[in-house]
Design goal:
By secondary structure, the protein is of the alpha/beta class. The chain folds into two domains: 3-39 and 249-412; 44-177, no CATH class. The chain is 42% helix and 16% strand. It has a seven-stranded parallel sheet with strand order 5-2-1-9-10-12-14, with helices on both faces. A three-stranded antiparallel sheet has the order 7-6-8. A hairpin with a 5-residue loop joins strand 6 and strand 7 (218-222). Helix 2 (44-65) crosses helix 5 (131-151) and helix 6 (163-174) packs across helix 7. The longest helix has 22 residues, at 44-65.
Length: 414
């Protein structure tokens, strides 16, 4: 295929880590790729900046941004993407040791102005941030921390200020949106030119859901952090979004336009809560029905499901109910010699192996169709017995996605 024939791809509903399985593909593919994220992560260090900005009728928001209703978005998931690519460019020059633990400088946390600015010097040196921007960020950071220390007792919050989140809050304001932040990094050769990050809505939203409790009654929970830590599976149809004014939420017209433009939609592995709420938005559902009819919807199945999720089959049948029939890339089985070592430990961490692994693998291009295609190798680590110790093999996934794109290309020529 020539470059002009390369399809535009959207990674739909990616969290801060799920996209990493696709990284080899993202950095090797030359066509346009958009990573779409829900702006719902409002807990912990991701949301505290916004909550402080909004406190007392938006006092600090108006002071720093000129409007009490300025959209201070949850940048946590995006911060992880930027941090990962920053490390690719700068290597250990952007690793800081805090409490004997190495962390990416964008993940560094402190409520001390001097400490945060001292660590930020690594970013300045690595990507050549000019003095004017550094000065502006320093003033922004100082005003934020001064106000934060006067009101922090009003918040149930134990962590400290994330350097990456406050830095990206500043860049978002200075460069007028997520595109401006991405362009800032592209100009400094941090992000690939063909990669864009987009949000599904132009302001933060709140995630809601229900689960069936021990008394056989539905229990309502609110907030992405509460849903992530639920000990009961969230009902698929109950996932919904609300805006900060309490009204029913959805997605922006701009996002729907980008979704329509995409010629292949890939839902990555990761939390179901990153993409399932979008399925329950009618305009998104309508577009995905169209995509699946053209075999332009792929889902990368999780290796495991957590306490707050059902086995993947449940979500597959839920999609089919709406006429959405994705091609599913499911991982191969965990190697036998690792099974006892890893899987038993995973159960202690609330993770269970998905039931539909070990299905028949599609071995030829013509065998790609709607349903399961057990194509993806897994890798294991002798040194890591946590949930992160078994992963999708990035090279295997890259190979299968490339094969699938070739299949679509020739299928369109028929």
């Amino acid at each position: 295929m020539h470059k002009k024939d390369l399809r535009e791809i959207m990674i739909l509903g990616s969290g801060g880590n799920g996209w990493k399985s696709l990284k080899e593909f993202l950095t090797g593919y030359q066509g346009l790729i958009k990573i779409a994220m829900l702006p719902v992560d409002w807990g912990g260090s991701t949301g505290i900046i916004g909550r402080v900005m909004e406190f007392n009728n938006g006092f600090l928001n108006k002071k720093l941004h000129g409007s009490k209703s300025y959209p201070v978005l949850p940048f946590g998931d995006m911060n992880k993407v930027f941090a990962d690519f920053l490390h690719d460019k700068c290597a250990d020059n952007v690793i800081h040791v805090a409490d004997n633990k190495p962390v990416n400088v964008l993940d560094f946390r402190s409520d001390n102005y001097d400490e945060l600015l001292e660590v930020f010097v690594s970013v300045k040196k690595c990507i050549d941030v000019d003095d004017k921007i550094v000065k502006g960020f320093g003033e922004y950071l100082q005003q934020y921390l001064e106000y934060y220390h006067t009101v922090k007792e009003e918040f149930e919050y134990e962590s400290k200020t994330s350097l990456g989140n406050i830095w990206h809050s500043y860049l978002f304001f200075k460069y007028n949106g997520v595109k401006g932040v991405c362009d800032f990094y592209k100009q400094r050769k941090v992000l690939p030119e063909n990669l864009e990050l987009v949000l599904t809505f132009d302001n933060r939203q709140i995630l809601h859901g229900n689960y069936l409790g021990e008394t056989k009654e539905f229990c309502y929970i609110k907030g992405e952090d509460q849903i992530d830590h639920s000990f009961h599976p969230i009902e698929p149809e109950s996932f919904n979004l609300s805006n900060i004014d309490g009204l029913r939420g959805g997605v922006s017209d701009e996002f729907i336009s980008k979704l329509k433009d995409a010629e292949l939609v890939v839902i990555p592995n990761g939390s179901i809560a990153n993409w399932l709420p979008l399925i329950n938005v009618d305009t998104v559902k309508k577009e995905l029905v169209k995509k699946s009819k053209k075999n332009e919807l792929v889902i990368l199945m999780n290796l495991f499901f957590g306490r707050n999720e059902y086995p993947f089959d449940v979500y597959h049948y839920y999609l089919k109910k709406f006429g959405i029939f994705p091609v599913i890339f499911s991982p191969k089985s965990v190697p036998e010699n690792y099974y006892n070592k890893f899987v038993r430990r995973y159960r202690l961490e609330g993770k269970t192996l998905n039931f539909n692994m070990n299905t028949v693998c599609a071995s030829e291009l013509v065998e790609f169709n709607n349903g399961y295609n057990n194509c993806i190798e897994v890798i294991t680590s002798d040194d890591d017995e946590t949930v992160a110790g078994i992963k999708h093999d990035q090279l295997s996934l890259k190979k299968q996605l490339m094969r699938y794109l070739i299949f679509l290309y020739f299928d369109n020529l028929k």
